[in-house]
Design goal:
The chain has one domain: Rossmann fold (3-Layer(aba) Sandwich). The chain is built from five helices and two strands. A two-stranded parallel sheet has the order 1-2. Helix 3 links the parallel strand 1 and strand 2.
Length: 95
């Protein structure tokens, strides 16, 4: 079973565009992929865990994961679910 099939069977994939192309890519090549986290958050939560589990499945299949903490994302914040923009944070604050 391919890693794509594992992710889909376990509910990590709900919908996507170019499904066949992505399936073929994951079967034919070992890709590098990333997941990013906002370093200003108080902690990780269950939503992060789901992404980390998908990352683990991909890594076990031979793909190369990269986990990123912040940078630009940390400075501007995650806008989803918000009515207004967050004030831009300085690199010193993020550190």
């Amino acid at each position: 079973m391919s890693v794509f099939d594992v992710l889909k069977e376990r509910g990590f994939i709900a919908q996507l565009s170019h499904e066949e192309e992505i399936r073929e890519l994951l079967e034919k090549e070992k890709i590098t992929f990333y997941i990013g986290f906002d370093p200003t958050a108080d902690s990780l939560h269950v939503g992060h865990f789901i992404a980390l589990m998908a990352m683990a499945h991909m890594q076990r299949a031979g793909h190369r994961p990269i986990a990123l903490l912040g940078g630009g994302t940390g400075m501007i914040g995650e806008p989803s679910g918000k009515d207004s923009m967050r004030k831009m944070l300085t690199p010193e604050f993020i550190q």
